[in-house]
Amino acid sequence: MLLRGGAVAAAGVLLPAGAARAALPAPTPEGDDVGYVQFAAIAESVSAAYWKRAGDAAAAKRKTAVVAKLIAALGADAPQSDDFVIDLPRKLTPAVGVRIETMLVRTLVGALASTADGSTRLLLARVLSTDSQQLTIARAAAKLPPVTGLPVPFDLDAAGDELDTFIKAPNYPTS
Q: The domain at 26-168 falls in which architecture?
């Protein structure tokens, strides 16, 4: 593909800018895809709450927009507002932000290898791209070097255990 004056040239056809992107089918998570997108929606909500409390309104706004896209992709399978309560530590340090963003990036790397629906995989890849940038920002705030290369992926069970440290499920029965 070549860019020509705000248009995309693909296979000799000149398309208006944005036409290729608009033609993509909507994500339709299926099977395990649903679990990854549900995880991402909740974890991105935790991340948005972190960045809001940390005083980065722009990052919180970006994260909130990501949550909306994930919720839209899930439809009826989307987590509801009363399914969980975000429970961030009282002392909010840059290390907490690194932990949240690392969890997201590692889980999304794993999700890309497992996601069956191509449009869902593309949505999660775009979220991963944004989260990787946010991880770099979080690591800089914690005075840590940026991550190089792909991190070791989290499987969904390990990611869920990590996420559980940042949320409470008020309607979930305890044993």
A: Up-down Bundle (1.20)
Per domain, the residue ranges of the chain are 26-168
Cα 127 to Cα 131: distance, rounded to the nearest angstrom: 6
Q: Are 30 and 119 in contact (CB under 8 A)?
A: no
H-helix or E-strand containing 168? strand 167-168
Residues 88 and 53 sit within 8 Å (Cβ to Cβ): yes
Tens-digit pLDDT profile for the chain (175 aa)? 334 444 444 444 444 555 455 567 899 998 889 999 999 999 999 999 999 999 999 999 999 999 999 999 999 999 988 889 999 999 999 999 999 999 999 999 999 999 999 999 999 999 999 999 999 999 999 999 998 888 899 889 999 999 999 999 876 555 5
In angstroms, the Cα distances linking 59 to 65, 97, 99, 166, 167 are 10, 12, 16, 18, 20
Q: What is the pTM of this model?
A: 0.83
